TrEMBL record:
Origin organism lineage: Bacteria, Pseudomonadati, Pseudomonadota, Gammaproteobacteria, Aeromonadales
PANTHER family according to UniProt: L-CYSTINE-BINDING PROTEIN TCYJ (PTHR35936:SF35), MEMBRANE-BOUND LYTIC MUREIN TRANSGLYCOSYLASE F (PTHR35936)
Domain Solute-binding protein family 3/N-terminal: 16-231
Gene3D superfamilies the UniProt entry points to: Periplasmic binding protein-like II
Similarity comment: family membership: Belongs to the bacterial solute-binding protein 3 family.
Domain of life of the native organism: Bacteria
Protein name: Solute-binding protein family 3/N-terminal domain-containing protein
Cited Pfam families: SBP_bac_3
Swiss-Prot/TrEMBL keywords: Signal
Species this chain originates from: Aeromonas dhakensis
Length: 246
């Protein structure tokens, strides 16, 4: 039955699935305008393979990617928050634990919303930060075009701290040769999904079944272990505990 549903849906869509996203190691690595590898790339390539579909993954600035989906130039956004208008699977395929980062020579050690008042805080323009972060009015947000630009702003002391996700921060730090340190505790965390536009919402039943199969078979665990040294189930449980403690 799953195979029949998948074949019917693939036939309806012409077997093509076009998804856009940003360079976000270790979940997606971009090369010449395409997302070539990474945790999320491998997961959704495998789902598409199981559904008999051809997946194209484009690298686009976040705002343009949203426009592509809204105008049906693309079918979905990779690793997006579950916002209104996002048609997503039951299982999250990525996680977005956000921390405040300072230069390694900063005297700051711990984060609190009280201590952040009045500080200049670097964030990326257009990113879907959690409500807790977006709606905090005590600090002065300074917007950058990318995570890499955030690191350069921090290095030049144009901001007091920056908001980065815990997984990609050490990778970006090495790439940009900027030494940084995370303050504890985390600011917030959210699960992420491949968010389809409404034009592909009917794909979700088959997509959900394929992802659940991959979880049951240990495929998600193996992909996460190769990139992060921890399996999918462990990180999912950590995410749930973090949210419950807030």
């Amino acid at each position: 039955m799953l195979l029949l549903i998948a074949l019917l849906l693939a036939a309806q869509s012409g077997g093509q699935l076009k998804v856009c996203g940003v360079d976000w190691p270790p979940f997606s690595y971009a090369e010449q305008g395409k997302l070539m590898e990474g945790i999320s790339v491998e997961i959704h390539q495998e789902v598409a393979h199981r559904l008999g579909m051809q997946l194209t993954l484009l690298e686009l600035p976040w705002g343009r990617c949203e426009q592509y989906v809204n105008t049906e130039l693309a079918d979905g956004i990779l690793d997006n928050a579950p916002l209104p208008g996002c048609y997503h699977s039951d299982l999250a395929t990525a996680f977005y634990p956000l921390a405040a980062y300072v230069r390694s020579d900063s005297p700051l050690q711990t984060f609190s919303w009280e201590m952040a008042k009045g500080l200049k805080v670097g964030m990326v323009r257009g990113y879907d930060y959690t409500d807790r972060i977006k709606h905090f009015t005590g600090w002065v947000p300074i917007k950058a075009h990318s995570d890499k630009q955030l690191l350069l702003m921090l290095e030049k002391s144009r901001v007091d701290l920056i908001v980065l996700d815990y997984f990609s921060a050490p990778i970006l730090s090495r790439e940009q040769d900027v030494k940084i340190r995370a303050l504890t505790p985390f600011l917030d965390s959210t699960p992420l999904y491949l968010c389809f536009g409404k034009q592909k919402a009917d794909l979700l039943p088959a997509y959900n079944k394929a992802l659940q199969q991959m979880l049951d078979e240990g495929v998600l665990d193996r992909i996460y272990l190769r990139y992060l040294g921890e399996d999918y189930r462990t990180l999912k449980e950590k995410q749930e505990r973090m949210k419950a403690a807030q």
